Amino acid sequence: MTQIDTGLVEKYRARLPLPQGCQAISLCEGNTPLIPCVNLPTKLGVDIKLYAKYEGLNPTGSFKDRGMTVAVTEAHARGAKAVICASTGNTSAAAAAYAARANMHCFVLIPEGKIALGKLAQARMHGATVIQIQGNFDQGLALVREVAEVVPVEIVNSINPFRLQGQKTAAFEIIEALGRAPDYHVLPVGNAGNISAYWMGYREYHDDNLCSNLPRMCGYQAEGAAPFLHGEPIENPETVATAIRIGAPASWDLAEQAVERSSGWFASVSDEQILQAQRWLAESEGIFCEPASAASLAGLAQDCERGNIGPGAVVVMTLTGHGLKDPDIAIAQRQEPMVTVSPTLADVRETIISHLE
Ligand code: AN7
Question: Which of 14, 120, 150, 190 could form a disulfide with 244 if both were Cys (CB 3.0 to 4.6 A apart)?
């Protein structure tokens, strides 16, 4: 029997507040692997059961596809002709792709010079109109809110509630895979939509008796872009993890509720910790994620070291985006030069032998 994956709008339609019978705008997103980590627990020095929800395997390479399929499906059902978003990169890539599929125009506002190369390539390739602003994401989002009042465009940032509705499905998939919710769910926090959506999804399955426990939600921010740790928005966020270079998160209240009600916490990690975690995932597990995603592991490592997460815990970390999104950072992660040799057996053999020693 053949079974074609229809994407998450079809799979979870009964749990999504979409107009009945509307056409799904889908790229077969979702259903991403929950990869058991085999080497990292030893590296962290704590005997936890650790799983990576590898969202980089979505069609445009990030978790944003979950929210975008639902937001664009809904906008398309109402006959919208154009969508707009501000973005640190991944939202723009997803919006551009789903808008292309729906024959809609896509406008994206991005901070000039501050988005990863792969994401820019995606927005351009899918035919979006890319508007670079000489400012940051927070200024971009404020402009999007204003401009959508005066021109006929649908906002597909996570202030559009259909985005979080789509993103909550990742929690459903985790419960379906584990047969329970984890003890801890750790993830990066930028605009704070994803942590809010996961908590919504876990609670929904819990309320419907599809799982008996709820996880503690642990949200990790980059040190230079950590408004939740400051207790208020910050003006000039800075981090190597450009995806989470955000100072005024839109889903502030929802994220705070998720952390409080789940007895979780926010913490911050340095750029150095983020980069080290990205290397660990690549070298110890064979998983390539982008820097922002590695904040999950950086924060987890810190919490294990501080004794906040102990032996026996079941932990899921979301790896929000694929490593190929940001080739510049990946290449800069390697200090040692590449080897260049003449095309001779002797040189190649010599190189191999010297590396095996
Ligand atoms: C890889 O694309 O905000 O806390 O405009 O791309 O839900 O914002 C990206 C966010 C984490 C943070 N990891 O999630 C955008 C954007 C990656 C991301 C986050 C983002 P939220």
Answer: 190
